[in-house]
Hints:
By secondary structure, the chain is mostly helical.
Amino acid sequence: MTNLDKIRLLFSMAILAYIIAIIMALANRKKEPVKKKYYKNNTVFNAVSVFKQGQSLLKQSFVTMNAFLEIVQYLKAVISVPIPPPSINVR
Length: 91
């Protein structure tokens, strides 16, 4: 790949997939707590990372078209970017 626009698009898609995975995992963690790992030195960590959990949820969602469309609708509601008003040229 030598076309800079295609490289930018590829990176944009990868970043978007990462963000969607994180959003889905955080939403799921509000419903169901994640298992914890306890170590001998009294440290506690989540058994599954946020990204890994989100990636797994995304894979499950892409199995059927209906589930995929539900994810799209959910993301549309969660990631709402305000549309700026049209610029008015006053002279």
